[in-house]
Amino acid sequence: MKIINTGCPAKGKTEGSVTIFLIMVLAFVFLFTAVLIDYARIAAFNVQEERLARASVRSVMSSYHVELRERYGLFAFGDSDGDLLLSKVLNENLHKSGRGDTFNLLPFALESSSLEWSRPLGSYDVFRHQILEEMKYKAPVDFALELAGKFKPLSGVMAEASRATELLSKLQPLYDEREENLDLMLERRSQAAESGRRVLLWIMNPPGDSISAHSLGSMQAAADIPAQYSDYLGKYYDDLYRDSKKPAKYTYQLALYQSRTSEMLSRLPSLLTTFREEHGQSMEEAKDAFNKAQQLNDEMRDVLAASRISGVNLADDPAKDWDIPGNSGEISAEPLKKLHEQEDALILSSADISSMENSLFKQQSAYESIEPTVTGLSGVLHEALGVNGDSYQMNSSVLGASHVVDNYYKKYGKKGSVIASDLAFLEEHRSSDKARKQVEWEAKSKLGEVRALLNKIRMLGSGAAASMERYQILHQFYEDNVSFNNGLEFQSSDKSEVSSDLYAAGSSAMKDIDGIYAAMSGIMGGARDRLFQTEYSALYFQHFDVSKLASLALNSLEDTSELTDQLDPRAQELEYILYGFHNPAGNVAAAYAEIFATRLSIRTMEGFIEKATLGNPLAVLAAALLYGIQHAIQDMLQLCEKDAIPLSKYMPAQLTYRDHLRLFMIMHGGGEVQLSRMLALIQLNTGINPAERNTYVSSDIKLQMQLWFLPSVVKMLNYTAGFPGEVQGNKYLRAVKADYSY
Predict the structure, then answer these.
(1) pLDDT of residue 4
(2) Residue 495, Cα to own-chain centre: how many angstroms?
């Protein structure tokens, strides 16, 4: 029997086909879901790993050095083992809890960890950055309220005083040298005339208006030749017309007269030659002195003109743009401005120069008439050797020559009328010179007292052996830091000396105060780095106890043992940072000298106002400097006794010793050399080498996580998806870096 297939499936066969299809679908869904789950776990793992890395490196850096932070406001990693801290933090965060029924979606495991340290605190950039961070809120307020506000009201008048001091200090040596050359010119002119005195005495001794006849005898001058000529003729004719039987009575006397006349006339050429040479040399020196005086006068005019051209900038109020109120009203600079009007009186006008030049030429012309007159006299007097001489002509010639030479001598010799007149003309504009010289002498004497006290301060260090040893250690630390930063060795400050020259000391003091105002203006204009470094130094470093110098300033200190502790570098840190002397007393002496210079500048400004009525600008300057030195000495004594002095007699605001050091730090501090000195002090005081203390760390952490499903598929997807980690076997590993800086 044949069976026909109708095409219908047997009952029950369809269920099997559906099951296979569902298995295929579910397998694909399971594969997709499994990969998606691991992918999500990897993404979560990456996020958590980064957070853990940052948290762990922050935990490591929380172990900063406590002493550096508390004593100097600085952060640097402490004495702990950073790698050990990192491992501990990571392991504690990866440690599983004690419960066994918990489900850990992201089972982390630490593969490796390491730290890389950099940016040591001893580096200039790092140290400066930490100073800025520490002081950025404190310094601007402190500076503006404590210092800038006190100095603002004085700025205009101090600028004017500085301009006047600078100008007059330049004019003073030129003025004195010019006057010395004018005096030399008159002296040489007088000396030239005096060189003809021997010729005058040869002609007639003493000079007179007539010649009296007298008998033959000795000859003192050429005038004796005609005076004795009449007697000579009488005796000659007596012998000539004598009785032929009698011998001549006057042969010897007549011969002696002729001999003396010849000898007298023979002396004239050498006298004229000597007169000509000495007169010429003296007049040449007089002309040179006059030309030098004229040159100096031109230089003075140029200095004054240059000062007035730049005067607007020099005398500008440096604080006019400071956006802070002053403590009180400004001081008027009018007395100093009126002094400008009197500066022209120091310059000799063209008419004055021409008048002195004409007087010089007139003297030369007067001299030129002497030699031919005297030479002609010699020819006339030769007639006295014969018997045909004209007594009247000889007398007239002698009197004429004597008058010419005597007139020249009376005009141009010592106390000569022309010389006296020219000297009176010079003295007319020197009305205050004698008084000024006396004031200068007093001021230099007072300046010598200051220099002597500075020498005493320097000598204090000679017996401080222990302090000197610590300074040597400090010096080594300083040199090490400079070398570490590849820096250059700097010379110590030159502010430890006060010039022995009165005007140089005053001019230098004024330049210093100008520098203070310029530095303040820079800070008020936004130059923050110098301010922050200055205020940091003043805040964290000890300064010298200036009260210890009170007895020394009063010359009553016999036992210096009480100063021993103050000679240690730890007792004068701020001074060392500022000046950099590696000896026990050098920095203190430098601070004292610079404070004195500041007080001198301010007190000299007051002196200009007080002494403006003296008229002569140079006399005003000398009196102002004397006033300034005297009051600055008193200020230094008060500062030593009370540690505070008024800014000025016109401004009661108080300045302490520390305030002055802050001013000087603002003026010439703020550089890398001061950073090295601070770091050396930190090492000396704490025993911590900042060059070995790091402030920046970079961590390299590698964690792993076990994959749940298909590592090979995940690894394959990683080629296209670009996971930041890598798959090794059934583990996913990723390295992450985290940085942290104080």
Answers:
(1) 45
(2) 8
SS3 call for 493: coil
CB atoms within 10 A of CB 502: 23
Q: Which amino acid is at 351?
A: A
Rounded CA gap, 322 and 148, in Å? 9
**Whole-angstrom distance, CA of residue 415 vs CA of residue 422:** 11
H helices present in 486-572, as ranges = 502-524, 528-540, 550-553
The residue length of the chain stands at: 742
For residue 336, which of 158, 154, 515, 601 has the smallest C-alpha distance? 158
77 forms beta bridges with: 64
Residue spans of alpha helices (H) in 95-136? 124-135
Angle at which helix 391-412 crosses helix 224-240, to 10 degrees, equals 160
Gap between the Cα atoms of 619 and 175, Å rounded: 12
Q: What is the dihedral of CA 354, 359, 364, 370, to 10 degrees?
A: 160
Q: What is the pTM of this model?
A: 0.80
- Model confidence over 440-484: pLDDT tens digits? 999 999 999 999 888 888 888 777 788 899 999 999 999 999 999
Which of 590, 625, 617 is closest to 505 using CA atoms?
Answer: 625
- The CA–CA distances, whole Å, from 24 to 21, 38, 712 equal 5, 21, 20
Query: Could you read off the pLDDT of 106-165 as tens digits, one per residue?
Result: 677 788 888 899 999 999 999 999 999 888 877 666 666 677 788 888 888 888 888 889
At position 275, the amino acid (one-letter code) is: F
User: Please, what is the angle between helix 155-194 and helix 502-524, to 10°?
Assistant: 160
How much is the average pLDDT of 408-427? 91
Which is nearest to 594 in space by CA: 706, 495, 709?
A: 495
Q: Rounded to an integer, what distance in angstroms lies between the CA atom of residue 524 and that of residue 277?
A: 70
Q: How many CB atoms lie within 10 A of CB 243?
A: 6
Residue 64 is given by DSSP the state B
CA proximity to 203, closest of 135, 120, 264, 136: 264
Whether 122 contacts 679, CB under 8 Å: yes
For 208, the 3-state DSSP assignment is coil
Strand order in the sheet with 731-741: 108-120, 694-706, 731-741, 726-728
Neighbouring C-beta atoms of residue 454, cutoff 10 Å = 20
Angle at 700 between CA 698 and CA 705, to 5 degrees: 150
CA–CA distance, 561 with 742 (Å, rounded to integer) = 44
Half-sphere exposure of 737 (CA within 13 A, CB side): 5
Of the two residues 315 and 376, the one the predictor is more confident about is 376
In the chain, the amino acid numbered 502 is L
H-run or E-run covering 735: strand 731-741
Low-confidence winner among 91-95, 167-171, 226-230 (lowest mean pLDDT): 91-95
Residue 335: asked if its preceding bond is cis (omega within 30°), the reply is: no
Residue 614 burial by Cβ neighbours in a 10 Å radius (0-12, 13-18, 19+):
buried
Q: Which helix (H) or strand (E) holds 654?
A: strand 651-656
Environment class of 595 (CB within 10 Å of its CB; exposed 0-12, middle 13-18, buried 19+): buried
- Tokens 């997807």, located at residue: 717
| CA 205 – CA 373 distance, rounded (Å) | 18
Reduce the secondary structure of 546-562 to three states and give it as a string.
HHHHHHHHCCCCCCHHH
CA distance linking residue 559 with residue 421, whole number of Å: 62
Token pair for 282: 């003296």
Q: Which residue has the tokens 């007895």?
A: 551
Instruction: For residues 360 and 285, give the distance between their C-alpha atoms in angstroms, rounded to a whole number.
Output: 12
Enter the tokens of residue 581. 């002397």
CA distance linking residue 131 with residue 306, whole number of Å: 43
